[in-house]
Amino acid sequence: xxxxxxxxxxxxxxxxxxxxxxxxxxxxxxxxxxxxxxxxxxxxxxxxxxxxxxxxxxxxxxxxxxxxxxxxxxxxxxxxxxxxxxxxxxxxxxxxxxxxxxxxxxxxxxxxxxxxxxxxxxxxxxxxxxxxxxxxxxxxxxxxxxxxxxxxxxxxxxxxxxxxxxxxxxxxxxxxxxxxxxxxxxxxxxxxxxxxxxxxxxxxxxxxxxxxxxxxxxxxxxxxxxxxxxxxxxxxxxxxxxxxxxxxxxxxxxxxxxxxxxxxxxxxxxxxxxxxxxxxxxxxxxxxxxxxxxxxxxxxxxxxxxxxxxxxxxxxxxxxxxxxxxxxxxxxxxxxxxxxxxxxxxxxxxxxxxxxxxxxxxx
Length: 363
Ligand code: SAH
Known about the structure:
By secondary structure, the chain is α/β, with parallel strands linked by helices. 33% of the residues lie in helices and 18% in strands. It has helices at residues 2-9, 21-30, 37-47, 61-70, 142-156, 176-187, 207-216, 230-236, 245-254, 277-286, 312-324, 359-362, and strands at residues 77-83, 89-94, 100-107, 112-115, 119-121, 136-139, 163-166, 199-203, 220-224, 263-269, 292-298, 328-331. It binds S-adenosyl-L-homocysteine (SAH).
């Protein structure tokens, strides 16, 4: 009985904010409308961010009515809005199924970055990450990924975001089905008009997804490396048991990187775990021949963790070794710590999630 009533109530209309140009063109073709309308509609929806089909004045009344009636328009509401002392802002967004995700806005002098989530929770269970402790509830849909940008622009202004990073909750390469159309909307001149240099996808190293991303989308790539030996990385990033370091680095070497770009390697600095000088020398060797930017991230603590942040001295000497070897290396400034908005602190409100991947597959 339950099943039947759920089906009867389910809304199978497409969400209007989840259609990229190709998706919208298909819908219009189904409706017998010309394809060029897709650009006009995208512009109203995304570039100008109108929230009502009736306002799209260069579109026929009939098409406006169909858009209003035959597609979904609902958007997440803002459950909480936190502002850190350094200007970082974090929003908790309520999804219709009772889950909530987090999005972080990071203003800097020369850019303003939005850090967005791609999943509700995460299945990868990295031992040093608050999101990983929750398990995965579900993938975000394209419109829910896009909604994060819309909330920020609604509250801060349409020009407020210069960069978008997929470094919030979740593993974007395990949700490419919804992440790729979102990227296409971010890149579209009639969508959000961002250059591919201003979009970064961060991954723990899901190799099949990496190859697909490389083929389909020219955005920046960040790899959450965090260790130089498999025995350490197996502990920190359990996904490493499926795609060990040598395979991950071979994939990075083969990645079709656009000219003059670098792959960012993120390396969380954990006291007594991966922060010795010897590790730095190993990292230099591992990255040989890859156009790389190394991003050292001082560990951010969260309730229940046993890890500790490396001391500033250790981080400096690690960085010194990298620099001397000619590797571009920066220490990531910790932002928004007072509102738990820093890397690895995003927990949202996830109803009991599962750790289906990769641990189950490993069993
Ligand atoms: N799943 C993707 C996207 C998350 S990005 C990925 O793993 O890349 C979030 C970044 O913050 C990743 O580099 C992650 O390893 C790092 N991170 C996670 N927990 C952290 C913590 N407690 N302190 C510092 N960085 C952390």
